[in-house]
């Protein structure tokens, strides 16, 4: 854990201890209990967000939008785009000064154009005080200067291991391996049984994040705490050698996989193990196809294995909510986000999403969705335990650009497939990253 994250963790832990002693959110200061922003006259809002991977997400989100309009009279238009399409559209909006008032985007995108985003410090501080504090990753992503908030965290889609219990047992494994050596042995055994694993190696915004885990688990890092690029390292080479062995056990085609591909392959019983949000399990439980529905009982979830570094190195798809500075209705936009983040709306949304999104605020750890089904529980702590994508450096233009350019994922794909040696792939990644992290 970086010094920054350790400090924030201790500060937030102290805050939660105080809350536990108080016994109730009602004991918080009155200033933390109420806040509202007076919307501008004749306000109307347009929201751009990523398309749902679980139907309950968008259903609950739109129900909350309807409640907001009924309460305030403010019409809200919501447009849905794929993750890969939201990023360029958001960039165009930021650069042209026209487009949606609010954009729900991913990972480090807010740091590509922080000067184009509305300062939402007042809202972020209110929500943090009322709901037990933000997790350290939220501050790292959306409070890059340690002072001003440039967005409101929405949560994260956890990238955990999704597997078929019966296939693991048939391959000789009673439980999911807890270390990288065991994981590789399991994948080899599954391949021998004709029930292989498959993890995305294309430019997949969410599912490609497993490559961060791979590098971090072996001690590699894109940059150090001073933002010096250090990806071409002995630790990275070891990780890439491991990746080559692992890739040899995968189903063919993963080099071109984007986010939907592994979902389809798993539900079609082409693969037995992948990394994903809870959407695969959700789809199986709610399928109208009896054969797919039967899979739900055989599906289980686990954390990524621990690598040679000896500690968890989780990377998850972070979601942010940005208010564009060009909006004509800044108060209405902040009031919309406040309304959507309050317990009366946020709890039902988390529940409707079926565990697909992990909360950004500690108070929502107690939301019932996390314990109603034990298969949901691993996803609860996604934001709490994640490392920001720009680990171990400071987030900003460089980290956002490097992430958007899929430098780490491309490096792993090149080495794993053999199109480059591990050393060649690391050297290329080093040069690409240095273009963003200019000294």
Rounded to an integer in angstroms, the radius of gyration calculated over CA atoms is 21 Å
Structural class of the secondary structure composition? alpha/beta
Mean pLDDT: 92
Strand neighbour order, sheet with most strands: 2-1-3-8-4
The secondary-structure element order is HEHEHEHHEEHHHHHEHHEEHHHHHH
Cα end-to-end separation: 25 Å
What is the chains' assembly state? single chain
Count of structural domains: 2
State the helicity in percent bands: 40-55%
- The H-level CATH homologous superfamily of the largest domain, spelled out, is Periplasmic binding protein-like II
The name of the CATH topology of the largest domain is D-Maltodextrin-Binding Protein, domain 2
The parts where pLDDT drops under 50 for at least 5 residues are 1-31
Main sheet overview: 5 strands, mixed
CATH architecture of the largest domain: 3-Layer(aba) Sandwich
Total beta-strand segments: 8
Top CATH class of the largest domain: Alpha Beta
* β-strand amount: 5-15%
The coarse silhouette is: globular
Describe the structure.
The protein has helices spanning 3-22, 55-72, 83-96, 121-130, 136-142, 165-170, 180-192, 210-217, 234-247, 259-267, 279-285, 290-295, 330-341, 343-352, 382-385, 397-404, 407-417, 422-436; strands spanning 45-50, 76-81, 102-106, 152-157, 160-164, 273-276, 299-302, 317-323. With 439 residues, it is an alpha/beta fold. It folds into 2 domains: 3-158 and 316-385, D-Maltodextrin-Binding Protein, domain 2 (3-Layer(aba) Sandwich); 160-314 and 405-436, D-Maltodextrin-Binding Protein, domain 2 (3-Layer(aba) Sandwich), CATH 3.40.190.10. It has a 5-stranded mixed beta sheet, with helices on both faces. The model is unreliable at 1-31 (pLDDT under 50).
